[in-house]
Give the backbone structure.
Amino acid sequence: MSNAAGPTDPVKIKKLDSRNLMIQWADGHESRYVGPVLRGLCPCASCQDEDTGQRLILPIHIPDTLEFKTVELVGLYALQFGWSDGHGTGIYSFERLRQLCPCEDCTKASPGATGSAADD
Amino acid sequence: MNKEIDVAEERVLGELRKVRDPDLGKDIVSLGFVRNIKIEGASVSFDINLTTPACPVKDQMRDEAEALVGALDGVTSAKANMTAEVRKAPRMDKSSLAGIKNIVAVGSGKGGVGKSTIAVNLATALSMAGASVGVLDGDIYGPTMPIMLGVTGPPDHVGNRITPRESSGLKFMSMGLMVKTPDQPLIWRGPMAHKAFQQCLFDVDWGELDYLVVDLPPGTGDVHLTLAQSVPITGCVIVSTPQDVGLQISVKTLRMFEQTKVPILGIIENMAYYVCPHCDSKDHIFGDGGARRAAEQIGVPFLGEVPLDLPIRTQADAGVPIVIAQPEAASSVVLRGIAERLAAQISIQNYNTPVLEVE
């Protein structure tokens, strides 16, 4: 176990515009997220069944026009987003966000972890 | 050859670069600790500004710096003034707690391991070393700290802001102060516990604090999650007995903190052994060295072992922490050492945590 900063520790979080978010990680990698895609992967109990893990909200339910209203840190380990559809209970851990990095290298390394069409 | 040698600041700095902070692994010049170099003829003085007044190697660093600078050609006296300024945890910027530099949680797996006794004594030891320290008794169901600090009755408030009580040099807040009589229980479900704890943290005027020590309830519950989610705490300390059954559960608490990315600053073994008051022999009632082995296995610092002795208990019941009441008692010496090692771990953690920019 180590307390040293690693690939799931962010060093910079930047809202690029109302739909795009950038996270730079301690290992130098940069991830760019599209808001509506993250919203479609919301891990809260009303978007995902707590027992079975089955998705109750799917990416196709999310309009492309959806925007970030707020981006807030949760302690040291996660982000919480407030969305323009009024939703805001999902806590996205940095570990999960790193897994969800949609860049080509990361999707090749762990296909299906990105919330791309393959998840639908 | 009696030409006067000019003692330039560069040469002094050159010598001081040889002094390393053993905890941060860098020299004290690169770390920005050296300030205020004054050269008057052959006398040199300077400040070494450490990251905590409770630095365990303070004297060693001072002696080393003075010896090196004193040995320079042309220097007849070298004086290092040791100062300290606790650095703020890089992510500690919640506006209502803006004056607090570090929040340190003290947790345990099971109850009854002496977590509150350890927490209150560590806080007091840090304060005696010169730090400004607050203590939040987060054990809302079984608050014992009012007894240990000899404080009763509700705190004052200004408008909606609560003024913390003060005792033994600490600022102090506990749910135990809010009940009408000491034997009145709090019968609450989770959401109430969450709200009450948040109030004790955010609605209290803590002012400027180097360290806020939060004494958690045993286990992994609402209060732990509330703390891990609402503030960027510097780290947590786990208190355990040497017993296997206690240790296994302590590891669960440790894993919970790990999941929420709260750094583990170390493990403390309490009730490590009993010293017989008649013959001074040591009895390892709960087993020997269990917590030290667990810390080694998991790869977290082991901060020390506190003996089970009578004064630590009687002083807790009398409302004065043992490190103040009997500073020379065996357990006080041990507790001060642990407080210093903890302060060093806090400095290391802050030094290694990358700054997070949010735009």
